[in-house]
Amino acid sequence: MDAPGVAPARITLFLMTEKGYRVLQHIVAHLDKTAVALVVGAPDAHVANDYFAEIQALCAQENIPFQRRVAGRPPAASQALAVSWRWLITGIDRLIVLHDSLLPQYRGFAPLVACLLNGEPEIGVTALYATTEFDQGPVLAQVARPVQYPITIARAVALAVECYLELTAQLWPGLCAGSLPPGTPQLEAAATYSLWRDEADYRIDWHRDSAYLRRFVDALGAPYRGASTLLGGQLHRVLAAEAEPDVVIENRAPGKVLFVRAGEPVVVCGTGLLRLTALRTDAGADALPLRQFRSRFG
């Protein structure tokens, strides 16, 4: 509790995506929103709904000052909390970052997607102090959730949001009082990194095994654009798929269609088969039922 007559420390929030919006909602509904000095937001072109408008609208509704990132450097602040932020933040004495992995594993970019691709048994979020090197600062707290496969990225994001809200509730009293602990140094020997992703990383490699490709399709679905592949020289998006048991193929050629069942192609993988249950052109038109049996995905 703050001492009588002592105002809580003022906190700047750097918020993006659904995670940032849910954190702001939680602060408004359950925590001391008067501690928020400013919310800085930015659009995210990589997802279908970036929640930028929702963040801005909630700030207006609650009379919380809001600033777009491109409007210029925000005023210097003693404390800040960053959620899903993609850019370097300067001018903050104490910056807390919420990161989508259980550090020191999966430092870097798109860690939640990387966790799902690797079939990790649990996912989580880490609260840490920002330093000059990304995701290497002392850890304040971590929250984890077990996962069972198959799992879509939308479901994984919902689990991650639970972690975000739990961490925010833990940190908020200390942020308001300006009295957070120093944190625990990370174990460098256990550190791993997740690389940034671009459009090329959406492309399906049919030489991989079908279990991995099922995770690949699930991990890159909505709110992302969807796993991509070429069919007839045109880019398509695989939005849902199911791994099927392998059969003996004398002249295995990953990417070729082996069966068409109820209009859905069953594609040869490096190991196993993948049945495409939702396939669209890059423009969004439904590409099922498959028109031509003798098709090759690439």
UniProtKB/TrEMBL annotation:
Coiled-coil regions listed: none
Family annotation (Gene3D superfamilies):
3.40.50.12230
A GO MF annotation of the entry reads:
methionyl-tRNA formyltransferase activity
Q: Which InterPro entries match?
A: Formyl_trans_C (IPR005793), Formyl_transf_N (IPR002376), Formyl_transf_N_sf (IPR036477), Formyl_transferase-like_C_sf (IPR011034)
| Positions of transmembrane segments | none
Identify the residues that the record assigns to the Formyl transferase N-terminal domain, covering every copy.
94-148
Q: Name one GO cellular component term.
A: cytosol
From which domain of life does this come? Bacteria
Q: Name one Pfam family in it.
A: Formyl_trans_N
Which residues does the UniProt record annotate as the domain Formyl transferase C-terminal? 199-284
Q: What protein name is recorded for this chain?
A: Methionyl-tRNA formyltransferase
Organism of this sequence:
Hymenobacter coccineus
